[in-house]
Amino acid sequence: MASRSSYDTAARAYADGVRALLTPTLSAVERAAPAPASTDALTAQATALARRSAALREATTADLAAADWAERARASTRLLAQAVTDLQISAYLLQVAQGESTERTVRSAEADFFSFDIEETLAILTEDDAAAATRAAVLPPDLPAARGQLSGLVTATLNSIEGRAAKTGQTAVSGLLVLGVGQVAQAAGIVGLDIAQALGVADKVTKLYALVRDYALSAYNALVALLGPAVAQSAAQQVLAWVNDVAAGEQFRTLLTQLYGTKQTAELLATLVSESQADLSKFVIAIQDVDGLNTGFRQQLDLVDKLLRGFRLVGGAAAVAIPQAAVLLAAAYIAITGYAVLAGADYVDAERVKLLNRVPGVRQVVEQALN
Predict the structure, then answer these.
(1) Exposed, middle or buried by CB within 10 Å (0-12, 13-18, 19+), for 142?
(2) In the chain, fewer beta carbons within 10 Å around the N or the C end?
(3) CA–CA separation, 307 vs 313, rounded Å?
(4) Residue 360 is inside which H or E element, if any?
(5) 26 CB-near residues (< 8 Å, 6+ apart)
(6) Which residues contact 58 (CB under 8 A, 6 or more apart)?
(7) pLDDT tens track for 57-75
(8) Could you give the count of Cα atoms lying within 13 Å of 187 in the half-sphere of its Cβ?
(9) Are 272 and 368 in contact (CB under 8 A)?
């Protein structure tokens, strides 16, 4: 586990470098591509920032093994936030490398990816985001109200987590189907491995294009770090099977309903809530913890959805300069699908899937509070 001071130092250095590189920042709707003082200066600046990015990813990855589950959850969210930021840097460098005019505003796909303030993700990394604090649940006045509130919250949270994971997984798998079976199979074989050498840069392109590739790879490597190389490889093979299922007409939500067993979990916890002899304070703890899980998972999947849009933009636009851009795009979609599904399983405590086991999920926090 990284020391608090070493993480804070790395996060601040990275955030300062990002702000310097991306000034002026994007507006909420559209942005004209900024004009750096010179390509050489921009290249040197981006190269130096890449070293800060690697240092921060290393510090954050170490926190995935922290003893405190809340710290592990924060590390997961931070890795996703850094991946989104690195991917935005990649997209920005791609704009510059393609020699776009400073008067030109971004097309709809780019505007969609650039529609959020970079400070949102930097605040997650530097813990300056007051809005990131878990919102306070409305607490019940008495025990009967607590039973009803907790029962409803458990069902809603289980359904919400399953629904978000299914929506993200369906989107990513649909993207894989567009790329084609050959690209997907090739990418699945290298997920969890070092794929940097496979992603060459075409002859006669600038160092800037190499940096476009490197920052996209950094975002991808953060996804692999979230899963761990061994789990990423295992998940990749399962994603291949899901691609075939979806191609045959199966809905991803149906696959997750079977995998997560949320209906059975909801029924089990409904019985526990109705029969528990715990006092009101224990019910309050359970309500707050379940609400926190719902909020935390939603924040992570919001970042994952930004990654889907960002990889689609960079992977498509950089295809001419990066020979294997489609393979990177497919590998990223596979890793995103794997993380969305496995993190969802972790947050609901799915009996059939325990590969991450990074947080006590809905079932665990309710059982621990009320038993």
Answers:
(1) exposed
(2) C
(3) 10
(4) none
(5) 114, 115, 117, 118
(6) 2
(7) 999 999 999 999 999 999 9
(8) 28
(9) no
